[in-house]
Amino acid sequence: MLKKLFSFSNPVGLILTTATIILTLSPEARRGTRKLLVKGAGAALALGDQMKGLTTQARLQLDSVMNEAKEEKEAMVLPDFVGMAKNTGSKIKNSFSAGTEISKDGIEKAGESIEKANDSYEKTQGLFDDIEPAKTNEQFAYNVLNDNVIIDKLNEIDQQFQ
Q1: What pLDDT score was predicted for residue 111?
Q2: How buried is 153 (Cβ within 10 angstroms: 0-12 exposed, 13-18 middle, 19+ buried)?
């Protein structure tokens, strides 16, 4: 690899070979190169110091911003979201419990209504056995709503429900 780098067919190799020969043979070139290297090293060190100072300043500014944010956070009055969530959960639970109680009551009342309807149905069994339907065009029809017995029974059932 060094052979390729320092060969005369490669332009970079030609430049490196020439620079090496000049630095080897010329004391003035060595002094000038030494001054250049010292100035370059000094510039690199100065640049490093500047970067160190900039990062230190940035860190100090970031720390001050973080401290201000912490102070502001402590000064803020935020709502208690955990307590709100617990209260909401208990409210939902209470509402659900109340809803199930109402449903149970409704089911009980419906059961009572069904029992009353069954009792009324049993009482009306056999009331119409002796009534003959009227003949109309070979079809039998009977208007139940005009029968006084039915009207009385319906009124009686209505009174029981009230």
Answers
A1: 83
A2: middle
The DSSP code sequence of the chain is -HHHHT-TTSHHHHHHHHHHHHHHH-HHHHHHHHHHHHHHHHHHHHHHHHHHHHHHHHHHHHHHHHHHHHHHHHH-----HHHHHHHHHHHHHHHHHHHHHHHHHHHHHHHHHHHHHHHHHHHHTTTTTTPPPEEETTEEE--GGG-HHHHHHHHHHHHHH-
**Per-residue confidence (pLDDT) for residue 6, from 0 to 100:** 62
CA distance 149 to 124: 10
Residues of the chain with pLDDT under 70: 1-2, 4-8, 78-79, 128-129, 131-144
pTM above 0.70, yes or no: no
User: What is the residue whose two structure tokens read 């009342």?
Assistant: 109
Q: Which residue's entry shows tokens 């429900």? A: 161
Query: Do residues 102 and 96 touch, judged by C-beta distance below 8 A?
Result: no
Q: Tokens for 109?
A: 């009342």
Q: How many CB atoms lie under 10 A from the CB of residue 80?
A: 9
- Six-digit token string for 28: 């003035």
Q: Any residues with CB less than 8 A from the CB of 120 and at least 6 apart, and which?
A: 153, 157, 160
